[in-house]
Automatic annotation (TrEMBL), chains A, B:
Disulfide bonds join 46-51. Residues 9-321 form the FAD/NAD(P)-binding domain. The keyword Nucleotide-binding applies. InterPro entries: Class-I_Pyr_Nuc-Dis_Oxidored, FAD/NAD-bd_sf, FAD/NAD-binding_dom, FAD/NAD-linked_Rdtase_dimer_sf, Pyr_nuc-diS_OxRdtase, Pyr_nucl-diS_OxRdtase_dimer. NAD(+) binds at residues 185-192, 272. This is Pyridine nucleotide-disulfide oxidoreductase. Gene3D superfamilies: 3.30.390.30, FAD/NAD(P)-binding domain (3.50.50.60). PANTHER family: DIHYDROLIPOYL DEHYDROGENASE, MITOCHONDRIAL, DISULFIDE OXIDOREDUCTASE. It comes from Streptomyces hawaiiensis.
Length: 476, 476
């Protein structure tokens, strides 16, 4: 190709992760023409280096822990996990890092895939540099949607490059189990990956700068996870910074702020995320390269009526499911604006990603599981709501005791005292992962407390914690 | 005692199962004086011969099945369940059929317990015949609440008594595993107990009069359970009646309508329930002994302003959790009427058991689990709602595939097309038991479809079936 080819579309989507895929799906469903640009694998971080592999790795750990807590069964669950079988299963769930299936799906919805690196080269214009170095210009009559996601953020430690540290990508795709693993961080990636690798046979040391794990959640979540990880054999050191890392004869050495020297075979940095917006031509449309992109509730970038930023890049909620939700909203908004339809932009309308503010759910697939939706008590108070938190010890629920011998867990419901609705719910304990969606519906649905009394939990399930929470609120 | 003692209360409760306990709790909390009469164990059927023992027996079966479907773990789950450990754990969960704990709880709320057989001997009057034959008369200023529950109904087969058949009581409290077990019936008790005893080592033959299992639920529920039970080794014969049963030299012989002769060590009749109202003096207040007691939404018996029938006896929903719900409503209604307070008797008000009509949840703890709430498609159509059912194959949900290799399951949502709310949801599959409460909140909360789109399921959980259901409805 000697001359640059130009193709015109209604919508150009940068990034073919789950978020980009959903923008493409919704705009195609509305009859718009859509191009999708991807420089790596179609399916994105989630499919190959995050949700899918991490959960494929975690499920055996959780299922084994569950089975070992059931009298009559526990005795027959012997020995460690079969690490090679677990890793092979993980490979299956990432389709062995091949994207044929997802490419086929994009094709089936009639979106055009451009492989290569896409950069804005002006308003409504994206230039794609293909693997062969050739360039194509894509123009977008209606919208460009930036769905490039995020990458692991690494701290500025000298010599870090030579150490070849793990990020979430290596931690979810590693082919062998390191004998010793240092994990830096205390958030979701850190706790999930510490859980996996400790269970698969690594000796894990978790170095946490802050006071505890999962700092953005209710405090008891991190406390219960820390207890469980410690019991599983991990060494957790909170209030610990890392001052230097080196690799000597294959061995990683981390030196902490207090001068402790910790050796390991690998080191994982799970120290936050950075937006993948540094090389997508933002500067050509007056935006800062490498910045998170602020958007309104239709996911449109402030000040640019043709530009959308959907998923991690807008920094509203760095979660696949929330990005997909935003993608559905953004896709519908793009389509509505294309046809001149009035937007349902009021809170909870079809063109407003209201849940981003009030009802973001998250499940941490550790043992015990942690699941939360909406605001923590601290967040609700900070937001100016007049709230009351009620807590229930999950061991008081019959269904929990039946689920696991010696069940340990905790639930909190944050009630808005003015409106008598829920602002947030947090559950920690074995088997609570699927239970959080009940809270998500209650919070997003703004179902009043008086009506929740009519939502009867089946006896004897763990869901009966709902009755205990309502009673605790009534009797408080 | 030569003279009959009389004690006056505000409320007299007949039956100290979970339902009676909750009526006592709510009336005591309102400051009324309450007596509770119980002829067997405080805690009732649920604690000793139903929910608790059955779920203690089922949990190891389900947990083992779950564990064996997880690559990397499955190989290490060897051999059968340890039946003696399972039975011992069941004994623990029934407190070895001793009620000290529950007696202590009744005492703690300040309710007076009368051990003995209670019978109405006129309006607002209950006479208790104690274990020593002595009588006490209890009078009730405000209300008598009949919470005597139900018992297994046995068919009128000649010679049945000599066979000493199992009912739900024996099936949940048996001390040894029969080599061969015949189960008569196709409902919840039949499927759950067939699941338990087949897994503990019995050879189970299930004789079902009707066309399939779980006939009151969506048809696919019974179909999936039948497939799984058959795969587990049970012999299921539908469309099969039992004409006679005998026990010869210890062996039970059942002869079917087609002349087949089936031998077993024990035979379980799970053929429905009968109200325990045959010997409680109903005839002294103009009601029929042995009948179910029709009530209004405050659980008050039609035509008797002082008489309440709560739980199984009113035949609204024969489920512990629903009986407890009714007990909370009835207790509140009794208290409100006692103080002359206006009742919140409108639908979904605090004094109306509205969920009985619209949002009864049920979990069947089989493998796969079955969970449903509200109306099935057939029930919704029969009730005159204009509805549409949308189905989703659970194997299409990422979280399901991660939960279990080769996941098989199905979900149905019944949407009211006029009001755009859900009339019912049914889920069948491993791990769906805790997921149904999300549907219970959606149905009882009458959360509109448009709002359910903002209740984002966490990725990758089985709860993402919600997104698939909404998409299926949107695209239908």
């Amino acid at each position: 190709m000697t001359e640059t080819e130009t193709n015109a579309y209604d919508v150009v989507v940068l990034g073919a992760g789950p978020v980009g895929e959903n923008v493409a799906d919704r705009t195609r469903a509305a009859g718009l023409t859509t191009a999708v640009v991807e420089s790596e694998l179609v399916g994105g971080e989630c499919s190959y280096w995050a949700c899918m592999p991490s959960k494929a790795l975690l499920r055996p750990v959780i299922a084994r822990a569950d089975a070992r807590r059931v009298p009559g069964l526990s005795q027959s669950v012997q020995g460690p996990l079969d690490a090679s079988a677990v890793l092979a299963h993980r490979d299956y769930f990432t389709s062995h890092w091949k994207d044929d299936g997802q490419v086929g799906w994009l094709d089936s919805i009639g979106a055009d895939l451009y492989r290569g690196h896409g950069r804005l080269t002006g308003p409504r214009t994206v230039t794609v540099t293909g693997p062969d170095g050739g360039e194509r210009v894509l123009t977008a009559r209606q919208a460009v949607a930036v769905c490039t996601g995020s990458r692991a953020a690494l701290p500025g430690l000298p010599g870090l490059d030579e150490v070849k540290p793990w990020t979430s990508r290596e931690a979810t795709s590693a082919k062998t189990v390191p004998g010793r693993l240092i994990v830096i961080g205390g958030g979701v990636v850190a706790t999930e990956m510490a859980t996996v690798w400790q269970a698969l046979g690594s000796k894990v040391t978790l170095l946490v700068r802050g006071e505890g794990l999962l700092p953005r959640m209710e405090p008891f979540a991190g406390e219960l996870i820390a207890e469980a990880l410690t019991e599983a054999g991990a060494d957790i050191r909170t209030g610990t910074s890392v001052e230097s890392v080196t690799r000597e004869n294959g061995t990683v050495v981390a030196v902490t702020g207090t001068g402790d020297r910790i050796e390991a075979d690998e080191i994982l940095f799970a120290t936050g995320r950075a937006p993948r917006t540094d090389d997508i031509g933002l500067e050509t449309v007056g935006l800062d390269a490498g910045s998170w992109l602020p958007v309104d509730d239709s996911l449109r970038v402030t000040g640019h009526d043709w530009l959308y930023a959907v998923g991690d890049v807008n920094h509203r909620a760095l979660l696949t499911h929330q990005g997909k939700y935003q993608a559905r909203v953004a896709g519908a908004a793009i389509a509505a604006r294309a046809t001149g339809e009035t937007l349902a932009a009021q809170p909870w309308g079809a063109h407003a990603a209201t849940a981003d503010h009030a009802a973001v759910p998250q499940v941490v697939f550790t043992d015990p599981e942690v699941a939360a939706v909406g605001l923590s008590l601290a967040e609700a108070e900070q937001a100016g709501h007049r709230v009351k938190a009620v807590d229930v010890d999950l061991s008081s629920v019959s269904g929990a005791g039946l689920y696991a011998d010696g069940y340990q867990g905790r639930a909190r419901m944050v009630v808005d005292l003015e409106e008598e609705i829920l602002r947030g719910v947090t559950l920690v304990g074995p088997g609570v992962g699927e239970l959080i969606h009940s809270a998500t519906i209650a919070v997003a649905g703004q179902v009043p407390i008086s009506r929740l009394w009519h939502a009867v939990p089946s006896y004897p399930t763990i869901s009966e914690v709902w009755l205990r929470l309502l009673e605790a609120y009534r009797d408080a």
